[in-house]
Design a protein that fits this description.
Elements lengths: L2 H17 L1 H11 L4 H18 L5 H15 L4 H15 L7 H19 L9 H16 L4 H18 L23 H16 L2
Helix pairs in contact: 1-2, 1-3, 1-4, 1-9, 2-3, 2-9, 3-4, 4-5, 5-6, 6-7, 7-8, 7-9, 8-9
Length: 206
């Protein structure tokens, strides 16, 4: 596993988000600005354009460029949040051997960036409701001796459960929080795109 695996992840994620753009926007239209799918699609297509023009010598260089691209190309909250995730993810892998443990540390660092920027808590009905259980499941799998494929699959499955658990929640962050009780009964779009990214990672990184 090396840079090519992470390029494959970004390309697969871009394809997946493109295919799900209308779905993500439909989710966002119920409780947000109705632009999450379009924003994520635009940002990841911009990453693909960079990949088509540039070769990268290290994973940290690649992921930092992906993060900067999202920050510059994606509006709303998702651009800065996902952009910060990839920037921190890349920084954590600078000079590191690529192992299930170090990749887990990179995921934790990336989500730490989301926490620092967005200040979410569990139950706020945000992407963190998918990220938090995904990190726990990944770390538990690695601690139990799992390889990268097993750890990423566990993370993706836990993210999906966290995503589904956002449906009954009343939003406490972002545009959705303006709706109060009316935000209940809707799946959070950020938790949904998080799950798509992790499912993509499970398909491509190992």
């Amino acid at each position: 596993m090396g840079v090519d695996s992470f390029v494959d992840w970004l390309r697969d994620a871009a394809s997946t988000l493109h295919e799900n753009a209308a779905y993500l926007t439909e989710l966002d239209s119920a409780i947000g600005d109705a632009d999450h799918g379009a924003n994520m699609d635009r940002g990841f297509q911009a990453i693909v354009a960079v990949l088509d023009e540039t070769s990268f010598g290290s994973v940290d260089e690649l992921m930092k460029k992906a993060g900067m691209t999202l920050v510059s190309k994606v509006g709303g909250a998702s651009g800065p949040l996902y952009g910060t995730f990839f920037l921190r993810f890349g920084t954590a892998l600078a000079g590191a051997e690529l192992t299930p443990a170090t990749i887990g540390e990179a995921f934790t660092a990336g989500v730490g960036g989301i926490l620092q920027r967005g200040k979410p808590e569990l139950g706020d009905k945000t992407m963190y409701d998918a990220w938090a259980p995904a990190l726990d499941a990944y770390d538990a799998a690695v601690a139990g001796g799992s390889d990268l494929a097993g750890a990423l699959t566990a993370a993706a499955e836990a993210a999906a459960k966290g995503r589904d658990a956002t449906v009954p929640l009343v939003a406490r962050k972002g545009r959705a929080s303006y709706l109060g009780e009316r935000s209940a009964g809707h799946q959070d779009p950020g938790a949904t795109s998080t799950t798509l990214l992790l499912e993509s990672a499970a398909r491509t990184l190992p």
